[in-house]
Write a structure and sequence with these properties.
Elements: E1 18-23, E2 34-39, E3 44-47, H1 75-82, H2 85-94, E4 100-105, H3 111-115, E5 121-127, E6 140-142, E7 155-161, H4 170-180, E8 181-192, H5 197-202, E9 216-218, H6 220-229, E10 232-240, H7 246-256, H8 267-282, E11 288-295
Parallel strand pairs: 4-5, 4-7, 5-6, 7-8
Antiparallel strand pairs: 1-2, 2-3, 3-9, 8-11, 10-11
This protein binds zinc ion (ZN).
Zinc ion binds near residues 10, 12, 15 and 41.
């Protein structure tokens, strides 16, 4: 079944932009062709044609990676877990806050919240469906963060780990974030970096595009424009590599050529490619970027 697609303009200024690529869903291998466009005025990349919002749930199958529960069955995996993405993210936010009320918008399986210390943090999560793992059950909200405001007591921090690029309504999401945060509270947004070395190398097959799930891909300038409008001040920019990596990029490139190799599951290949990830971080051209902003008082 093929969805009826819709056309869209730049999410910031509504201009039609310039067509860069025609893309397919290489990650989940679902149907459709999508347009990747660029607005030079806003430095924003956006999908058009794209899947209409009411139909996009079809493109989040159970196999979609962020929703797989994380289980560390063996000792090897327990060691890997200590070095894993949730732990890296925990250490990133610890540079700014040591505890309080935290809300993870788009919490997926709940792995990030589970990595936080229970004594220091009061944890809340939101996603469109309750995760199987139940990691944030009890303090879990079902919903779309970019649609309706979340009605609860203010929080000290909001995290969005590779979530913001999925939003159809980024301005609404930031307005909701400003309403939910206490004055001076922290907003952490990690997103793919369209000006990364990986994007230059892999072009239309770069994993950061992830069509049709990534509605827009934000440069620093595009995101800062939205943050400023919503009453935030950008506080720090941290080169990040916890969303997409080189082995996953290679996998998608091979997938586009008809090979199904699961290269990103090879620890050897990941180890061999890790110097490239390190180099791109040192050059501040890493595959993803963590933006840290504070709500103005
Ligand atoms: Zn624009």
């Amino acid at each position: 079944m093929t969805s009826a697609h819709e056309t869209a303009g730049c999410l910031l200024c509504r201009s039609g932009g310039v067509r860069l690529y025609t893309q397919r869903d290489l990650n989940c291998r679902l149907d459709g062709e999508f347009g990747q466009n660029y607005c030079p005025a806003c430095d924003l990349f956006f999908l058009s044609p794209r899947v209409p919002e009411h139909d996009i749930h079809r493109y989040y199958p159970a196999t979609y990676q962020p929703w797989r529960p994380v289980r560390y069955a063996s000792l090897l995996y327990r060691i890997a877990g200590a070095l894993s993405i949730p732990q890296i993210r925990r250490r990133r936010i610890a540079r700014f806050l040591s505890g309080g009320r935290i809300f993870d918008a788009g919490c997926g399986s709940g792995a990030f919240l589970a990595a936080l210390n229970d004594q220091a943090w009061q944890k809340f999560g939101m996603d469109v469906t309750l995760p199987d793992s139940g990691l944030c059950a009890g303090q879990f909200h079902t919903g779309h963060f970019d649609r309706e405001p979340t009605r609860m007591e203010p929080v000290d921090a909001i995290t969005m780990w590779h979530v913001f690029e999925h939003f159809y309504h980024p301005r609404q999401a930031l307005s909701n974030a400003a309403a939910l945060l206490r004055p001076g509270g922290y907003l952490f947004i990690s997103i793919p970096n369209p000006h990364s070395i990986e994007r230059r190398v892999f072009g239309k097959y770069w994993a950061g595009w992830d069509p049709p799930r990534h509605i827009a891909t934000y440069s620093r300038r595009a995101l800062e424009t939205l943050l400023t409008e919503a009453g935030f001040r950008l506080q720090a920019i941290v080169p990040d590599a916890t969303g997409v990596d080189w082995s996953f990029n290679l996998n998608l490139l091979m997938s586009a050529r008809g090979h199904s190799l699961r290269l990103h599951e090879s620890l050897v290949l990941r180890a061999l490619l890790s110097p490239l990830a390190l180099l791109s971080r040192l050059l501040r051209r890493s595959g993803s970027t963590l933006y840290v902003a504070r709500r103005l008082t």
